[in-house]
Design a protein that fits this description.
alpha/beta; four-stranded antiparallel sheet; 10 strands; globular; Rossmann fold; single chain; 232 residues
Length: 232
């Protein structure tokens, strides 16, 4: 099976004063289409740096990142932006919704960007996502009229509405209480199981990591464990 995501000998070194800080140290990772992978580790282990490089938001010091057959590290800024638009959906700890727009308006913005300004003629995917995320009755609500869990579900819908090759989720439950965290993790799991959406999720929480089918543990910029979760 061809990988949807591949890194080869990935390194990232920051210069802090006169000291080199090695955030990633020759990291190799592969993710197949349809996988749900959690990347777990303590603060400072390099997991957030890794996610930002995978999403084309940072350039590595050395190594390669291949998303859907395209090498991110060889692309210009404009080309990386275009690849993100076509192939990557982001879900962040902060919901990053437009506060003056309804939930529906936030989704339409994503559809507009993906379609280069052309309105979508196929509502099947939208309806399927809204039903799965239990958002059908929330489309006219603005973010401040929604709970934290509902706002994150809108953010997830926005990320997945155009069927990206991969979703990159950075601590998606970090701002939620335990009840809403469970709901959001369940929604991500259902997106993976029922729609076959590939997901890579960064987390420091072992309970959140266990929802994925596969867990990768990082320490000091390297992968120290890579295993399938028994419950999945």
């Amino acid at each position: 099976m061809d990988e949807i995501l591949l890194t080869e000998n990935l390194t990232m070194t920051y210069r802090v004063g006169k000291v080199d800080v090695h955030a990633l140290r020759g990291l190799n990772l592969s993710v197949n289409p349809g996988e749900f992978v959690s990347i777990m580790g303590p603060s400072g282990c390099g997991k957030s740096t890794l996610l930002h490089i995978l999403g084309g938001l940072l350039q590595p010091t050395s190594g390669r990142v291949i998303i859907g057959g395209e090498d991110l590290t060889t692309l210009s800024d404009a080309e990386r932006t275009d690849l993100r638009r076509r192939k990557i959906g982001f879900v962040f700890q902060r919901f990053n919704l437009f506060p003056t727009l309804s939930a529906e308006g936030n989704l339409k913005i994503a559809e507009h960007i993906h379609g280069k300004g052309k309105p979508s003629r196929d509502n099947r995917m939208r309806l399927e996502v809204l039903k799965l995320l239990q958002l059908e009755n929330k489309m006219r609500h603005k973010p401040l009229e929604l709970s934290g869990g509902e706002q994150q579900r809108v953010a997830i819908a926005r990320a997945v509405i155009n069927r990206p090759a991969i979703i990159l989720a950075d601590e998606p439950t970090g701002n939620l209480d335990s009840e809403n965290s469970k709901i959001v993790l369940d929604m991500l799991s259902r997106l993976n199981r029922e729609l076959g959406q590939t997901i890579v999720m960064i987390t420091h929480n072992p309970e959140a990591a266990a929802v994925a089918r596969r867990t990768i543990e990082m320490r000091d910029g390297t992968i120290v464990k890579d295993y399938l979760n028994a419950s999945n």
